[in-house]
Structures
1.
Amino acid sequence: MNFFKRIFKSEPKLEPLDLSVLKTDLHSHLIPGIDDGSKSLEESIALLKRFQELGYSKVITTPHVMSDFYRNTPEIILSGLAEVKSAIEKEGLEIEIEAAAEYYLDDYFEDLIAKNNLLTFGDNYILFELSFQNPPTRIKEVIFSLITGGYKPILAHVERYPFYFNEWDTLEDLRNRGTNFQLNINSLSGQYGPQVKKMGQDLINRNWIEVIGSDCHHMRHLDSINELRTNAHLHKISKKTELLNKFI
Ligand SMILES: [Fe+2]
């Protein structure tokens, strides 16, 4: 294949995937007004309707918890969840919703782990994220406290951190310490950049992804997932029988 053909080579397009095989979406921002996701109850309902149309039967939504910007407590998150649930009922939607959180790794998160004051989902799973700018200095300690506290850590959108691009030994070490990896479906479109896309593909090819998620903040994220239904890597990861989305 010549140089130009290689550069512009388009990925094979498959038959659009029926997303109902995934069952549950495990990363999103659908509680209105408490983070940078949905801004109103109407928007949350429109998004949930779209999840349902795409084939999902459940979402476990994960508002940001971050000491500097989003000090969301379990009470704030769960009272927002109750509002969304009653609106779902009023609108006659069939999709189920639960809530956990996406914890940013900071001192506040470490306090919450020490106090056992965390929102988990399924069998004590906990979703956490890192800064995109600075490599974490305390990730090993945090994973250790989570594991010894009986939690099952999931690192959110593992493919998006520039300091982990092609750092396979570091990533393998995190896995050996008990970390599960979550991939954003939209990383496969290239919308977060070509390196993120490549990392996403490589992680799927290595079979290092346990969870996939929409990380939905607004409707454009779901439009893009709809388009990705023909994507070969999304097909590949969706065939994985142990994918956590299917069991929760
Ligand atoms: Fe997120």
Note: The radius of gyration is 18 Å.
2.
Amino acid sequence: MAASTETCKQTPGAFAPVIDTRRCEGKADCVRVCPYDVFAVRTLTAGERGALSFLTRVKVAVHGGKQAFVVNAGQCEACGLCVAACPEHAITLARNQPL
Ligand code: SF4
């Protein structure tokens, strides 16, 4: 099913997705559904792996060593498609603080 932007009602950048690294398994559903290319999935660097808890490092390794990253937060229109699509319930939306 094609992603829809019909429900996107927020000014771009007013909200941004937050990924729970304890939950993300890099399955890339967020990449597939986001109409604005906000996400990328890639292999974690050694430093990024080192910042995770032991259990999360093991979990990430079992799932190919990849996780999702927010690479274009300013493009998010808070449609919620990624929140609904993530099978691990790893994504929430947070309102950005005004400058
Ligand atoms: S809510 Fe998620 S799917 Fe929608 S624009 Fe923002 S990052 Fe993309």
Note: The chain has one domain: 15-95.
